[in-house]
Design goal:
The complex is a heterotrimer.
Chain A: E1 8-17, E2 26-36, H1 41-54, E3 77-78, E4 81-82, E5 104-108, E6 117-119, E7 122-123, H2 126-133, H3 155-165, H4 172-176, H5 183-194, H6 203-216, H7 227-231, H8 239-254
Parallel strand pairs in A: 1-5
Antiparallel strand pairs in A: 1-2, 3-4, 3-5, 6-7
Helix pairs in contact in A: 2-6, 3-5, 5-6, 5-8, 6-8
Chain B: E1 3-4, H1 21-28, H2 34-37, E2 41-45, H3 49-61, E3 64-68, E4 86-87, H4 99-109, H5 116-136, E5 161-162, H6 168-185, E6 189-192, E7 195-203, E8 206-214, E9 220-224, E10 227-230, H7 251-258, E11 263-264, E12 269-275, E13 298-302, E14 319-320, H8 322-326, H9 336-348, E15 360-363, H10 365-371, H11 373-391, E16 400-409, E17 412-413, E18 426-428, H12 446-468, H13 479-498, H14 504-518, H15 525-545, H16 557-581, H17 605-608, E19 610-615, E20 624-629
Parallel strand pairs in B: 1-20, 2-3, 2-10, 3-6, 10-18
Antiparallel strand pairs in B: 4-5, 7-8, 8-9, 11-17, 11-19, 12-16, 13-14, 13-15, 15-16, 19-20
Helix pairs in contact in B: 3-6, 3-12, 4-5, 5-12, 10-11, 14-15, 14-16, 15-16
Chain C: H1 12-15, H2 19-26, H3 28-53, H4 60-72, H5 74-104, H6 128-146, E1 149-150, E2 153-154, H7 164-173, H8 175-202, H9 211-239
Antiparallel strand pairs in C: 1-2
Helix pairs in contact in C: 2-3, 3-5, 3-8, 3-9, 6-8, 7-9, 8-9
């Protein structure tokens, strides 16, 4: 048999509804019937929203864009797990075949002080932008770059940098952490740059500044529980946090910054 | 009958030796002194590769930049989804590449429907892009010794594609985003996220500002500046199902069109051959599998019609490797438009596979046998994983099923050599303009064009406009801002007022069906006329029956979507109209009336070797055609053969 | 977006050159670093303490000789005990301050929260504050039993003598004390099972080559410490049931 057999599901959904940032919210229950197991999770929400519009109820707001797992826009807590039960998968790439007929699915927004709810399942993740803004770059102006092959980057260093740079900025690490810590996100950028020759000039300044911004944005601290690593759809490893710790202490105690 | 303007459009291309045209033009461009740059404000709409790179570069030069994006962060623009790579004429592999060859391949790949001067410049600056991005810390793939790695891609016979695993677009975009964020920190860029541009403000014939809606609060805002740079991407979502992100839309481009910017070649749409096929009516988007898969996968269908056997039950002799059969020298690597049409041809003839019979096999069994599963996993593991997540089929065991899908739009707002539209002060970059790809884009060229425009073209050309046009200071108090604001507000209110029975989603899907069935991979006069009629009817129905709940003063995704659908319903008519007008086949535009005996494109250079740029005349009225003749002095008109 | 975010203004602290020290104790990573360093040093103390206490199994002479030699070096003891006190204080202060900060980082809780780590039941890592608090309580009791007090009477009212061996057995003979000591030792082990490897992570001392080993050593260390101390509480009073304390 080479083709998947499509089935249909009847589901109960409990979804966080909140009209705005300053309003209070609550879980609301909906039922859906005949959901194809070939649907993505977001397509299931699309069906719900069409049903709500037909019934005169405002649809559920949720963030999404590329729907192929790379833009990092989507992301909700599904039964208490960031992006749902499948590992290394964003919400948009999760398919309904991972659920069973008759299931109750609880859907909540990312919760963190630094990610205030905008509406329903939509949160404000601009704190991530402010962290990058405080140092997540190489200060090079357009036009002045030397030939790309002038500075060799050994294959293994490039691979390490690429693995860290793969972060999609979705915020699942923060959402899944018991402390709402952003360490995995910040460390991905710190190690991406620290592992490349291009990132050396600002190595110390970058980590000090990005961690200071992270703290100021009121993310929690790291308890080394590795929940972030398990929730990360982009496969960012916990070892990045260890490297960031090292980078930070080196910068704090031994650099001139 | 098409109304044609009396005068021909002037693309302001330099003349003389093609290799020195850009140098010569740069010499002639006027400069803006540093103290005047500080006094100038430039509005950049969109933060993809074009918008991000433009905003960062302009800010580095000293301009004040206001940057707008529809997403919740500049890092999420859809450039991020580009997988395969970015071309550059570096010739690192020593395999005979050069600026000339990249130029030639691009003009030929675009079926002689792009400007020679633009394409040559693109090939020239391509090398600087790689240097710039590597310096930013973009982790391009490297050989073990540390030098940059290249691969061949999308029907090129040289290896000129640079890549970052399967996430090249992501890494390049993050590079541009980080460069932008550096300027945000320096106070030179102000970012406005979750904003949708709803109108262009033109004062005395010059673009001077925009009207936006804050998608969180619903508040309308106006912004004034000395120039407006539009980097708002393509219009593939007119087809509803496409590989575009859900927020990709034509609204900003369309509103500029309505303010006098010409829309060029909207019928040039690219259908990508390797997408995961549609699985049901619920489908909300199509997912692209990187073209690089065709380096090792073999495309086939059964030799007998309506063959329901599973693929492993079909013996080798009963398989039709139709790309290898029809295009022996390029085989499975034939360009996108050619491969897509060949797949459609087989499926239309009844040889398609899968539940809907609308897909073909992409088979890796030979590559797995030859190189082993581990090697295949190393190269394509992430793509295979994605395929399995979506289809629940294991591509290591059963062949993938693929089908073409709308992917990229070569058409866009008309721009001259300076990337300025027909409205002075309005610049258009990246996929939003029509410029460099002609009638078909080659793989790994979109990233190149977006970054070329933003990093290395606009920063030079925009200064000339600012230095020469002696712009008076304007503020948002000018009456033109008030007028545009009222127009934008009343349009949103009009949608809310309809209070009908059908969702915006319903209309969008209906439009998609019309477009895919009649203005898709193959088009004919009858179908196009039918499409135009149906689009008009659907548009009327929309304004009578659309149902949008909630208010305009809140975060209302449904309202946003309805506004975009309303614009698609106007724009799609122009797309179909342009396809009807272009009575020839070229690249992504295939008219069934014009094909060779073997079913290939039959161009008509005598009548259509020009850019068709349309000028707005009011909704429902036929647009006026402005022609820009295309001359090929270096890359002579020829036949595009991949046999 | 704001510009120049999170850049502190220069102040007194910069003038006296202590910004680094301030950040060491106040930044997230600085705090984790100090937590890790103090934790590992306390682990070192545990090793020495367990090694000494295992002499309880060797008999009164061995143990009392060890105790007397230790107490004779009073200069060393003052420094060591002050050091230990500072380590504990820093470790405890940071436990409170990070836990407080972490709680503030998520005000609205999830209705349901599940781990995504396959095979994880209830991790020691989620109970670090709680297990730490239990260990703290146990340590205070332990000090009250055997370290603090005056005029031959400890804080719990037991009379103690110069016979350290006898004093210890006297405490452990009490069934309630004994249970508390066993439970304290086990909770300490739980605390260490996450804390040991975690300290390496916090110090940035990780390496793909050595991390698996560190994790195993961490678990083994936790078991050795827990079993070592618990076995003393469980078995020493039984083995030396007939011991007659030396009285003065």
């Amino acid at each position: 048999m080479n083709h998947s057999t499509s089935k249909t599901l009847n589901l109960t959904l409990k979804i966080w509804r909140q009209a705005g940032p300053d309003q209070s919210g609550a879980l609301k229950t909906y039922t859906l019937t005949n959901i194809s197991t070939d649907m993505s999770f977001l397509e299931m929400l699309d069906v719900l929203n069409e049903q709500l519009i037909a019934n005169g109820e405002e649809p559920v707001a949720f963030d999404h864009d590329c729907r192929e797992g790379i833009c990092g826009t989507c992301g909700v807590m599904i039964n208490g797990q960031a992006h749902g039960p499948e590992s290394a998968t964003t919400t948009c790439q999760l398919h309904m075949r991972k659920f069973n007929d008759g299931d109750t699915i609880l859907i909540e927004p990312w919760r963190a002080k630094a990610f205030p709810v905008v509406r329903d399942l939509v949160v404000d993740r601009s704190a991530f932008d402010r962290i990058i803004q405080s140092g997540g770059y190489v200060s090079v102006n357009t036009g002045g770059a030397p030939d790309a092959n002038a500075i060799p980057v050994p294959g293994h260093m490039q691979k390490d940098a690429m693995a860290a740079a793969a972060c999609i900025g979705c915020g699942a690490c923060v959402a899944s952490c018991k402390n709402a810590s952003a360490m995995l996100f910040v460390s991905a950028k710190v190690t991406h740059m620290a592992n490349l020759p291009q990132g050396q000039a600002e190595r110390s300044k970058r980590v000090l500044s990005m961690v200071a911004t992270m703290d100021a944005e009121q993310f929690g601290n790291c308890s080394n529980t590795a929940e972030c690593e398990a929730a990360c759809p982009a496969g960012i490893k916990l070892s990045n946090i260890a490297q960031m710790n090292r980078e930070y202490m080196k910068a704090l105690l031994f650099s001139c910054e | 009958m098409v109304t044609v303007a009396d005068t021909e459009l002037d693309g302001r291309c330099p003349t003389g030796d093609i290799a020195s045209r850009w140098e010569q033009r740069k010499r002639d461009l006027k400069l803006v002194a540093p103290h005047n740059k500080r006094k100038s404000t430039i509005i950049v709409v969109g933060t993809g590769l074009a918008g991000g790179s433009a905003a960062a570069s302009l800010a580095e030069m000293g301009y004040n930049v206001l940057s707008f994006c529809i997403q919740d962060s500049p890092r999420r623009a859809h450039s991020i989804a580009a997988q395969g790579g970015i071309n550059a004429a570096k010739n690192y592999p020593n395999d005979g590449d050069s600026v000339w060859r990249l130029f030639y391949d691009t003009v030929k790949g675009g079926e002689w429907r792009a400007r020679e001067s633009n394409v040559y410049r693109l090939a020239q600056v391509s090398t600087s892009i790689i240097d710039q991005c590597a310096a930013q810390g973009v982790p391009f793939a490297r050989e073990y010794g540390g030098s940059l790695a290249n691969r061949s891609f999308g029907g090129a016979q040289v290896s000129r594609t640079f890549y970052c695993a399967g996430q090249t677009g992501q890494q390049l975009l993050l590079g541009a985003y980080q460069a932008m964020m550096r300027q945000v920190d320096a106070g030179r860029i102000k970012t406005f996220v979750r904003r949708e541009m709803l109108d262009l403000v033109v004062i005395n014939g010059v673009a001077r500002g925009i009207v936006t809606r804050d998608l969180v609060t619903g508040k309308f805002e106006t912004f004034a500046g000395d120039a407006v740079v539009l980097c708002t991407g393509g219009y593939g979502n007119a087809y509803y199902l496409s590989t575009n992100a859900k927020t990709c839309n034509v609204t900003a481009n369309w509103r500029c069109y309505k303010r006098g910017a010409y829309f060029a070649n909207p019928c040039y749409t690219q259908i990508h051959p390797t997408c995961i096929p549609v699985s049901g009516d619920h489908q909300s988007k199509l997912t692209l599998m990187s073209e690089s898969l065709r380096n090792d996968g073999r495309v086939w269908v059964p030799k007998t019609k309506d063959d329901t056997r599973s693929p492993d039950q079909i013996p080798e002799i009963e398989r039709d490797y139709y790309l290898e059969r029809r295009y022996p020298s390029y085989g499975n690597l034939a360009p996108r438009d050619v491969s897509s049409r060949a797949a459609k041809e087989r499926c239309d003839e009844g040889y398609g596979v899968g539940p809907s019979k609308k897909s073909v096999y992409l088979d890796f069994s030979e590559a797995i046998k030859r190189d082993g599963e581990d090697v295949v996993r190393e190269k394509y593991g992430n793509l295979f994983h994605m395929y399995e997540r979506i289809t629940a089929e294991n591509p290591y065991k059963v062949p993938m099923r693929i089908y073409p899908a709308i992917h990229y739009t070569m058409g866009g707002l008309w721009v001259d050599y300076h990337l300025q539209s027909s409205v002075p002060g309005l610049y258009v970059l990246g996929e939003a303009n029509f410029s460099d790809h002609g009638a078909n884009r080659l793989g790994a060229s979109a990233l190149m064009q977006g970054l070329a425009d933003g990093y290395f073209v606009l920063p030079y050309t925009i200064g000339d406009h600012l230095a020469t046009s002696k712009l008076p200071k304007v503020t948002t108090d000018a009456p033109e801002f008030g007028e545009a604001l009222t127009a934008a507000k009343s349009r949103v209110q009009a949608i809310l007022n309809v209070n009908g029975t059908q969702s915006a989603e319903h209309f969008h899907r209906a439009l998609g069906h019309i477009m895919w069935d009649n203005v898709g991979m193959a088009r004919n006069e009858k179908g196009l006329m039918k499409a135009i009629q149906e689009i008009r009817e659907l548009r009327e129905d929309f304004w009578k029956n659309v149902k949008v709940l909630g208010t305009g003063e809140s975060f209302n995704q449904n309202l946003e979507h309805a506004g975009r659908v309303a614009d698609f319903l106007e724009f799609s008519e122009l797309l179909a109209y342009d396809a009807l007008y272009r009575d020839e086949s070229c690249g992504g535009h295939f008219r069934e009336e014009h094909q060779t005996a073997e079913g290939e494109c039959d161009r008509n250079d005598d009548k259509f070797c020009h850019v068709a740029a349309w000028e707005y005349q009011g909704v429902g009225n036929d647009s006026v055609l402005h022609k820009e003749q295309l001359n090929f002095e270096y890359c002579h008109l020829g036949t595009r053969s991949y046999k | 977006m704001e510009t120049g975010s999170a850049r502190p203004k220069a102040g007194l602290i910069d003038w006296i050159g202590l910004r680094w020290f301030f950040l060491l104790l106040s930044s997230s990573i600085g705090q984790k670093f100090v937590m890790g360093v103090t934790g590992l040093l306390l682990c070192g103390f545990l090793v020495a303490h367990l090694a000494g206490n295992l002499l309880l199994f060797a008999g009164a002479k061995w143990f009392n000789d060890y105790a007397h030699k230790l107490h004779e070096q009073w200069e060393f003891l003052i420094i060591a005990e002050t050091g230990l006190f500072i380590l504990f204080l820093a470790h405890i202060y940071l436990a409170f301050s990070t836990s407080f900060g972490n709680a503030k980082a998520r005000e609205e809780q999830y209705a349901v929260k599940q781990t995504k780590i396959s095979g994880r039941v209830i991790g020691a890592n989620t109970w670090m504050f709680a297990s730490g608090a239990v260990v703290l309580g146990f340590v205070l009791l332990h000090l009250a039993d055997l370290r603090l007090g005056a005029d031959g009477i400890n804080l719990r009212g037991f009379k103690y003598t110069d016979d350290a061996f006898g004093n210890t057995l006297m405490v452990l003979k009490n069934p309630i004390s004994r249970a508390v000591y066993v439970i304290g030792s086990i909770v300490l082990g739980i605390h260490l099972s996450h804390g040991f490897a975690s300290a390496f992570q916090s110090l940035g001392l990780n390496h793909p080559k050595y991390m698996p080993l560190i994790k195993i050593v961490g678990k083994v260390f936790a078991v050795v410490i827990a079993v070592g101390f618990a076995s003393i509480a469980l078995f020493a009073p039984e083995i030396w049931r007939g011991y007659v304390p030396v009285s003065h």
